[in-house]
Here is the input.
Amino acid sequence: MKRLFVMSDLHGQFVLLQLMLEKIGFTDDDELFILGDIMDRGPNSIDIYYFVQSMPNIHMLRGNHEIMMVQSLQKAIELKDLDSVRNNAYRLWKTNGGAKTVESIREYLQKDAIPYEEYIENRTLFVQEIIDFINSLPSYYEFDYLGKHYVLVHAGVDPEAETMDDMDPELMSWIREYFYLSECNPDYTYIFGHTPLCFINNDRSFNIWYDPDYHNKIGIDGGLAVADKGQLNCLCLTDGQEYAIPYKEGQAESIMERLGITSWL
Here is the structure.
């Protein structure tokens, strides 16, 4: 039987993603929905980017970090500089963890190993490729599955909007309390990321959160963007089983060293 899984907010933690896929026994017959924010803060954003693109049974939403990234990279093309002091969009992105992704891009493009002119040309093509990919991503997924009507979204929805077609795509990548503290459509089951669950759970844990008041929302952001804490959560929609792998400092580096590789790409 095909199984459906949901994750969110990987934030460059490629090793955790691979460990989770191994833990759940992910196969070509299964499907995985990632609810945005694969980029920033962690060490391997570009690895996740290429991995997601290579997997036809992995589907991804556009998160707020992808939005900040596109705005920054579009300005970078205009200014012909990835981190120009004139790039206000880059300053915002950098403040929110984008500097790690820029490091990943430079490493992937071998900035210090090739002539500068060649690096600039390759960077322009690569940056446009990322922009096109992110702009192609949807803001939500909506489907019926095993008797439930699911809406998968990065941050949430506008509780006052009558239908999903009425939603502001950018709002769905940024909203917080107004969404998860409201009833919204009682006939839908909303699954969202974006807000680290330590800020929602009464016990301050990063465990998957189930709306105790309206019983129609599930939060899954395990807080990998919260300093050196957090965990990667995964929820199976087929049987309701929950999975979690805690973040451990140096985890990616130790596994790469053990395998004798310098890059996952």
